[in-house]
Amino acid sequence: MTQADPADQVANAQVLGREFATAIVVFHEAVGRLLGLSAVERKCLDLLQRLGPVTAGAVGEHTGLTTGAVTRMLDRLAKAGYVRRAPDPHDRRKVVVHLLPNERMDALMAMAFGPFVDDLGTIMTHYDEKETRAILDWASRTTGALITSTRRISGLDA
C-alpha cells in the first residue's frame, strides 16, 4: 500500500473543507428563508435560544460581528417580531435582547432540523468514542478559528 502524497492530502482537505463550508452556508440560508431572514439573522436567533437573554455585546462576542452590524441585525429582528430589547435588571445602562415565543418559527425549525438531526445521529454511529472525540475537537477548534476570522474580517470594514 502506498502512502498518499501529503500535498495531495492537503489539496483534498481544502476542497472538502470548502464544499463543507458551502453546504453549511447554503443550508442555513435556506432555513433562514423559511423565516424571511438571512442565514446570519437566523443563526442569531439560534444563539439567543442557546444562551437565553443576553446583551447585544454578548451577541457580538459570540458571532464576531461588529457592534454596528449587531445593532442593525437586532433592529431587523425586532421589527420582524422575533426579539425584543429590555433594560438589564442588573445594570439599567445595558439592554438585554430577548427571543420572543414564536410557534411558526418553532414548527419550521422542527421541520427543517428534525431530519437533519436524525441524519447526524446515524452518521455518528459510524465512529467509535475516540473518533467522536477527534471530530468534536476538530469542530470546536474550527468554530474558534471561524469566529476569530470573522472578527478580523469585520475589523477590515470599520
Automatic annotation (TrEMBL):
<dbReference type="InterPro" id="IPR000835">
    <property type="entry name" value="HTH_MarR-typ"/>
</dbReference>
<dbReference type="GO" id="GO:0003700">
    <property type="term" value="F:DNA-binding transcription factor activity"/>
</dbReference>
<dbReference type="GO" id="GO:0006950">
    <property type="term" value="P:response to stress"/>
</dbReference>
<dbReference type="InterPro" id="IPR036390">
    <property type="entry name" value="WH_DNA-bd_sf"/>
</dbReference>
<dbReference type="Pfam" id="PF01047">
    <property type="entry name" value="MarR"/>
</dbReference>
<dbReference type="GO" id="GO:0003677">
    <property type="term" value="F:DNA binding"/>
</dbReference>
<feature type="domain" description="HTH marR-type">
    <location>
        <begin position="30"/>
        <end position="125"/>
    </location>
</feature>
<dbReference type="InterPro" id="IPR039422">
    <property type="entry name" value="MarR/SlyA-like"/>
</dbReference>
<dbReference type="InterPro" id="IPR036388">
    <property type="entry name" value="WH-like_DNA-bd_sf"/>
</dbReference>
<keyword id="KW-0238">DNA-binding</keyword>
<protein>
    <submittedName>
        <fullName>DNA-binding transcriptional regulator, MarR family</fullName>
    </submittedName>
</protein>
